[in-house]
Design brief:
Length: 672
């Protein structure tokens, strides 16, 4: 069987050498899945279980096609194909059994027959295997550990294991029938809320992002960022921050964001004078910020809205200020390094012109405007996503038609039957490409949500969430800061094996009740804090996935680049703390209080960046750096007089640094 031209490795599964027949099969299944999602989002909504079961079945078939059983570098062989055929059947059975027997299953709820249990076991194994291939072995191991934990107890399948459990983790134990019913036949397992969000809101917006990417929106955002900042000190690095904010707002992956924007920004940063590790770290930190940037927030906005029963638009609105604060911090780090190392911007003739960029790509802003307008009208996010996809397709087609019939003839390209045929073929190819890319991009997040459903189901069945809350309260001694540090460490450990979305789901189920009930953190703030901390595995050594991606492009050492990313992404750790102790910036309050909190937060983050780098207007000695660090603690403490004192100290330290710079002769670059 001949090997086909392979898709780019940026595309999920693009690094796998596939036979032509498999590539065609992937395209057919992916396009079918995307069309099904569009149909159910905008034409005929389906019932909860019908939507989720069909979605999961198609996603798993796609996962088994995209990712061979023995890894991307080995051909399937007879054994590989045999395993795949078994799991294809398992995927179809997982979805088909529910669709065809849903009424009967509901009628015998709690009294499952042997066929129900057998299919439930097959479905669970199939989901875990699809997750292993699409997400990674860590996710599957955590799902298996959850199931084993459910069995461990005097009345469970593994009574001997229950004897080894610490007292606080003990429970009665459950039989295979009870666990299988909970995971497959109920609303708290595989087909629970996480998969429900993935099968509706997340998929349609991932598809929207795929069409933006296919039609050239990525280049538009990058060019716009360069046109805006390219001539400033450290221009390419600042462009990386802005482009990552733009791309990240429509992208579902920090790593994909690094690869997409970093291919342009990292080489230019190095050329300007940034060290390779700095260039990779800046891009990783900025791309991670894209995951907390509205409107999508890497699918997090939809999950937070569902878990907190808060309108999606409200989640978007309260997330804007924290996201701006994060990007402002990274931007200031970039600016300080440029000043410190005496960098200049790029020459004007090497940069795109803003007027030309807007002329060529203004139409990419229309779908985003439609999206915001429909959300403001309180339309369902799924329907909004549908109309956003339709809008970008309509705008792309209309713009190309106008160019083809009115502009091209003036440039010596006459309209002929052959030319029309070529244009239609190209347009159809782009449409198929967008539908396929959207489905490919959704595989990992959907599988992560399915296994997260297993974990959530076990937590609900065994009462692990309440036990975890008791442990958290005991270990922290009732101290909120220690509790938040525990959440941060737990998110880092989980992030080593789970993608961000799954890490958030698992963490909020475990620690959310403790944060809200025991420590009095408002519900929405608790969810945002856990979601922000779930991002830390992208930039925190030793497992800094976005940092590793940046290092690969920059040609630097992965660990050094990760430490740089960790430094630039300090807002990821500080801003959630500020949310907890100053919740007015999230849940609202008197306007003067909200404005005051916003101003002091931005001032504190900027001062922290200067103190960490030891430079602002000129080199900063240790004394003001220590004073600023102490003042930041004061600003974060929820007491007006303490906040004012902290602000005063920071202003004095920054003012003294500015006066020192005025007294100096023209500064020479400071070595990094």
């Amino acid at each position: 069987m001949s090997e086909s031209n392979q898709p780019s490795s940026v595309v999920p599964g693009g690094n796998v050498i596939q036979p032509r027949m498999v590539l065609w099969s992937i395209t057919i299944v992916a396009v079918g899945l995307s069309l099904f999602q569009l149909y159910s989002a905008g034409i005929q909504p389906l019932g909860l279980f019908y939507q989720r079961s069909i979605h999961l079945a198609l996603i798993m078939v796609l996962a088994f096609l995209m990712f061979p059983a023995f890894g991307p570098t080995r051909k399937r062989g007879v054994l590989g194909w045999g395993l795949d055929l078994v799991f294809f059947a398992g995927a179809i059975l997982t979805g088909g059994y529910l669709v065809l027997n849903l009424d009967e299953i509901f009628s015998r709820a709690g009294f499952w027959n042997s066929t129900d249990i057998l299919v439930a076991c097959i479905a669970t194994v199939t989901v875990l295997e699809a997750s292993r291939r699409a997400v990674g072995f860590g996710m599957t191991v955590i799902g298996l550990l959850a199931i084993v934990y459910a069995f461990a107890g005097p009345r469970g399948e593994l009574p001997w294991l229950g004897e080894w459990m610490p007292g606080i983790l003990e429970h009665r134990g459950y039989t295979i029938d009870r666990v299988a019913g909970q995971l497959y036949l109920g609303q708290e397992g595989i087909f629970g809320l996480p998969l429900g969000v993935a099968a509706t809101y997340i998929f349609i917006f991932v598809l929207f992002g795929a069409f933006l990417e296919c039609t050239g929106a990525g280049k538009f955002f990058i060019d716009m960022a360069y046109a805006a900042t390219g001539r400033q000190r450290g221009g390419p690095a600042k462009a990386a921050v802005l482009a990552s904010a733009g791309m990240g707002s429509i992208s579902g992956s920090a790593i994909a964001n690094v690869v997409t924007t970093g291919a342009f920004t990292i080489p230019l940063m190095k050329r300007l004078g940034y060290k390779a590790k700095q260039a990779g770290g800046i891009e990783a930190a900025a791309s991670t910020g894209g995951q907390i940037m509205p409107p999508l927030m890497g699918a997090g906005a939809f999950l937070i809205a569902e878990y907190t029963n808060t309108p999606y638009l409200d989640i978007v609105k309260v997330s804007i200020l924290p996201a701006i604060m994060y990007f402002a911090t990274v931007y200031l780090f970039v600016h300080i390094i440029a000043l410190k190392q005496g960098m200049q911007g790029l020459p004007k003739d090497e940069l795109p012109q803003m007027r030309q960029v807007m002329k060529d790509g203004w139409h990419f802003l229309l779908p985003l405007a439609v999206l915001v307008w429909l959300l403001a009208m309180s339309m369902s996010p799924m329907r909004v996503g549908y109309y956003a996809v339709v809008t970008i397709l309509a705008v792309a087609v209309l713009r190309y038609v106008l160019w083809f019939f009115f502009v091209a003839p003036r440039q010596g390209q006459p309209v002929t039957a052959t030319a029309v045929k070529d244009v239609v073929r190209t347009g159809f190819t782009k449409l198929i490409e967008g539908l396929e890319l959207g489905a490919r991009n959704a595989v990992a997040v959907s599988m992560a949500c399915a296994v997260a459903g297993i974990i959530v189901g076990v937590v609900g069945l065994t009462g692990l969430g309440l036990k975890f809350s008791s442990m958290m309260l005991a270990f922290s001694g009732g101290n909120l800061v220690l509790a938040l540090v525990m959440v941060l460490l737990a998110s880092l450990v989980l992030g080593m094996g789970l993608p961000v979305t799954a890490s958030y789901i698992v963490l909020i189920v475990l620690v959310g009740p403790a944060l809200t009930a025991e420590f009095g953190v408002p519900l929405l703030v608790a969810h945002l804090v856990v979601f922000w901390y779930s991002q830390d595995s992208n930039v925190t050594p030793p497992i800094a996935l976005a940092g590793f991606a940046g290092a690969a492009i920059a040609g630097s050492k992965p660990m050094e680049t990760s430490f740089q990313a960790w430094k630039f992404a300090k807002g990821l750790y500080l801003i959630p703390l500020f949310m907890v102790f100053n919740p007015e910036i999230i849940i609202g309050g008197p306007v003067p209080v909200v404005i005051w909190n916003g101003v002091i937060a931005i001032l504190a983050l900027g001062a922290f960046a200067a103190a960490l780098e030891g430079y602002l207007f000129t080199k900063m000695s240790w004394l003001p750096r220590i004073a600023i660090t102490a003042a930041i603690f004061g600003v974060f403490y929820p007491n007006l007089m303490t906040e004012i004192a902290g602000v005063a100290v920071m202003i004095v330290a920054i003012g003294a640094n500015w006066l020192a710079s005025k007294r100096e002769t023209p500064a020479t670059p400071v070595s990094g």
